[in-house]
Amino acid sequence: MSTVFARNLLFNKQVMATDGTEIGTLSNIIIEIKGGNIIDLMITPNPNFDISSYKKVDNYILMSFDSVSAIKDYIIVDKMKARA
Predict the structure, then answer these.
(1) Which of 5, 23, 34, 79 is most buried (CB neighbours < 10 A)?
(2) Which CATH number fits domain 6-82: 3.30.2320.80, 3.40.50.300, 3.65.10.10, 2.30.30.240?
(3) What is the pLDDT of residue 1?
(4) Whole-angstrom distance, CA of residue 53 vs CA of residue 5
(5) Which residues contact 7 (CB under 8 A, 6 or more apart)?
(6) Separation in Å, CA 66 to CA 1, 19, 56
(7) What residue ranges do the domains of the chain occupy?
(8) 40: closest CA among 67, 19, 17?
(9) Is the pTM here over 0.70, yes or no?
(10) What is the DSSP string of the chain?
(11) From first to last of its 84 residues, what are the pLDDT tens digits of the chain?
(12) pLDDT, position 80
C-alpha cells in the first residue's frame, strides 16, 4: 500500500476565488491539534491582490478553511467568507 501525504497534493497549489481572482499560493495550513481539523490556509498573496480585508501574519494572509468550496487543480475559495 502506498502512502500519499497532503503536503505533496496541496502545498504550492494556486488559490483562486470563486470569481476567478488569483489570490496566491498555498504556503501552509493551520491545524487544530486536538481534533486534527484544518482551521486556516496560510497563503502567499499575489502582488496584485488587495490583502487589506484579510487576516495577516508576516507576509501571508490567512483564510478560513470554511471558505474553501473546491480543491482540484486550484484551491477555490469564497472571498466573502474568507474576509477577517
Answers:
(1) 23
(2) 2.30.30.240
(3) 45
(4) 32
(5) none
(6) 31, 17, 17
(7) 6-82
(8) 67
(9) yes
(10) -----HHHHHTT-EEEETTS-EEEEEEEEEE-TTT--EEEEEEEE-TTS--TTSEEETTEEEEEGGGEEEESSSEEE-HHHH--
(11) 444 455 556 778 999 999 999 999 999 888 888 888 889 999 999 999 999 999 999 999 999 999 999 998 899 999 888 876
(12) 85
pLDDT, position 4: 44
Cell digits for 79?
A: 472571498
